Amino acid sequence: MNIPYTVEERPDTGLSNGKFGIWLFLASEVMLFGALFSTYILLRTGAAEWPHGELSVTLGAINTVILISSSVTMVMAWASLKMNDWGKHRLYLIATFVLAGVFLVNKYFEYSEHLHAGEGPWHNTFLAIYFTLTGLHGLHILGGMVVMAYFIGPGAKMWKTSPAQFTNRIEATGLYWHFVDLVWIFLFPVLYLL
Amino acid sequence: MHSDQEAVRKSVRSYMTVFAMLMVFTVITVAVSRFHFAVPVAIAIALIIAAMKGAMVAGVFMHLSHERQAIYGTLILTVLFFVVLMFIPIFTDMDHIRLNH
């Protein structure tokens, strides 16, 4: 079966199906995270007191820098394909994958420190919403890494048979990845600083 | 194809500018939090900076500054529903059980 409009634009939307599809998916993701942000507001405004300084700002800031850097390497992975530079594309995509991994390792250290101190999600309302929000975000990081691993590995051969479609796939991956970065940009001040 | 490559080459410069600005804004966010402003002020400052960073990521990295109508339409609808979601905590606050009636 041939999937239509993978490369050429659909006349009614002016977009390839994949690109419109990923944007619709991201719209649903906004609602998913939005519901949890709304929950955070409800819990915080309803709480008699809200803990401050429970999390390591240094680790949170390092993870922010890591994710911002990974967004740049991701967009460069796509731009390299547009400029027909396969070698650089590989380098940037692998760099994005590694940065995502470093983010998760950092998160692991943060989580284990809390859990060893007996401060799991059951400990208080703040930690409950902290683990929920960052856990869901972490799963998104993991999901992104699976997709990137596919395009670093078996999915890469499409570049030889259909380079334009492969470039579109990397663009869609990038759009998802930038969204994951965008969510963290809000999570960092909300959970670590305020 | 050649002009397309030229356009991408130009965009790379804006990606690097945005990268630098995002780093600067991250430093500002952390620095401002050290001043211990009153909670409403701190929330306002942090969210304004986060919104600016988010706008840069969406506008430049996600190319939203020059996209098709279909995407803008989808996102306007999403923003509308998102705003409703953010107001739900306020709605619940207005909904009190009147025990003395």
Radius of gyration of chain A using CA atoms only: 19 Å
Helix/strand class of chain A: mainly alpha
Low-pLDDT sequence parts of chain B? none
Largest sheet descriptor of chain B: none
Mean pLDDT of chain A: 95
* DSSP, total strands of chain B: 0
CATH superfamily of chain A: Cytochrome c oxidase, subunit III, four-helix bundle
Q: What's the gyration radius of chain B in Å?
A: 20 Å
What is the number of E strands of chain A?
Answer: 0
Distance between the termini of chain B: 74 Å
Number of helices of chain B: 3
Instruction: Tell me the strand percentage band of chain A.
Output: under 5%
Q: What's the SSE pattern of chain A? A: HHHHHH
Structural class of chain B: mainly alpha
User: What about the largest sheet of chain A?
Assistant: none
Q: How much helix, percentage-wise, in residues of chain A?
A: over 70%
Helix content class of chain B: over 70%
Topology:
The complex is a heterodimer of chains A (194) and B (101).
Chain A (H helix, E strand, L loop, with lengths): L16 H30 L10 H26 L3 H31 L8 H28 L5 H4 L1 H31 L1
Chain B lengths: L1 H32 L5 H23 L7 H26 L7
List the keywords.
heterodimer, A: 194 residues, mainly alpha, Four Helix Bundle (Hemerythrin (Met), subunit A), 6 helices, B: 101 residues, 3 helices, 0% strand, flat
